[in-house]
Structures are given as structure tokens and as C-alpha cells.
Amino acid sequence: MALVVQGMKTAVTGTTAEAVGTGLARLGQSPVVLGGDELDLIEVMERGGSLGLIHIGPAEPKAMHAYADQARDLGLEFSADPGDLEGEEAVEFLTGAKFLVTSEDRYHLLQATTGLADDEILERVRVRVTTLDQDGVEIAGHDMDRVRVPFARAREIIDPAGGVEAFTAGLLAGLGWGMSLRRASEVGSQLTALALESVGPQGYSVNPVDFVNRLEQSYGPAAAAEASAYLLPE
């Protein structure tokens, strides 16, 4: 479902990326987006049906807080990427989230500016999903063992821009398909590899057959079989 808003330009942001291995360094302002009072989640559900999980990513801080407040008030589950939010503003935003999705650098910044240890952050969110560049992904949460998902095989690192966003897109797609957190993170990591192999954050395309084959190379036949049920339906 798409919500079309007349008279507003598509959000655009400038980014400078620097490669350090497969690391990401991002500079620039968040995109201009709808304000929190301009997007009503009740209206969205009336148009498109129930919402299983809402992802709130970096944007104008007032809008981010408004989206999170709406989700909490309506009892809707949401995942949170605080982006550049710091201190109490970041804590207020992420509290109550089902997932906290960040890069390792952003997570360290979050800890430094809030003064919260890892276990204190996990008292405020259910699950933390942190990308670790070439070391893969770490998943930690309540009543679960920590999980490390290795980085997917990449053919060649051309441009690191957009890697975190690609991971989040793949993660959310996998969760939407009903996959486990580990399997959804594998899908996200493989999509990250595609982004890193392309110029620009959105310069890649996904061929379903090739994607499933690469999942098998990275994570084995079980991962490929599970993804093919959604990407290659009979």
C-alpha cells in the first residue's frame, strides 16, 4: 500500500560515504518528511488494513517522536532507528520499541550520549539488532541467547552507501514473511551485499533467482528454501 500525498516533493538527502573494509560512515542531514501531524496511522489502517510492524527511521525529530507516540497509543508494534537522536531525546523515542535497529557506530553513539549500558537499553526495547560491518549482525534481547549472523558473501565492494538501509529493508521483509529474526537478518545481510556492490544507495536491483542462489552460497540450502517460498512462488 502506498499513501500518496499531493503537493509535496519526494524526500531527498545528501550523503557522503567512506569505505573502511565494509564499514559505513555517513554525513549529512536527514531527509525532509511528513510531519507527525500529517500522517495519521488510523487513516493508514482504514485505507490499507491492519499494520503488523511499523518501522520509524531517521527523520525530523518531531516527526519521529510523533510516529512513535501514535504507535504506542494504538498498541502497534514498531521498530526504531534513532539515527542522530542523542541523550534523553533518543531514550524517549526508542522506549517501547519491539526492535532497535542500528549500525554498531550508531549504537555506540547512543550509549555514549544516553549513559545507558547494553542491559539498560534492553530494558527499554524488546530486541536489539546491530549491524557489525564485516563481522555481520548481532541480535540480543529478553529471554534469548545472543545471536551472531555472519556477513553475506559480497562479490566486490564498490560503494558502501546505503548498506544499513538495505539491511533494514531485508530484515523487515523477512519478518513480514514470518521468518525468524536470524533468517530475516540473513536476508537483510544478503541485500546489504547487493547494495555494497552497486554505485549509490539505490543503484542495485534484485533478481529473485539470483538472490535465492546467493542466499544458499552465504547461508546454506535451508535459508534458500525458506526465501524461495516468498521470492519464487510456484
TrEMBL record:
**UniProt xrefs under InterPro entries:** Ribokinase-like (IPR029056)
What's the protein name?
A: PfkB family carbohydrate kinase
Record the organism.
Glycomyces artemisiae
Q: What is the lineage of its organism?
A: Bacteria, Bacillati, Actinomycetota, Actinomycetes, Glycomycetales
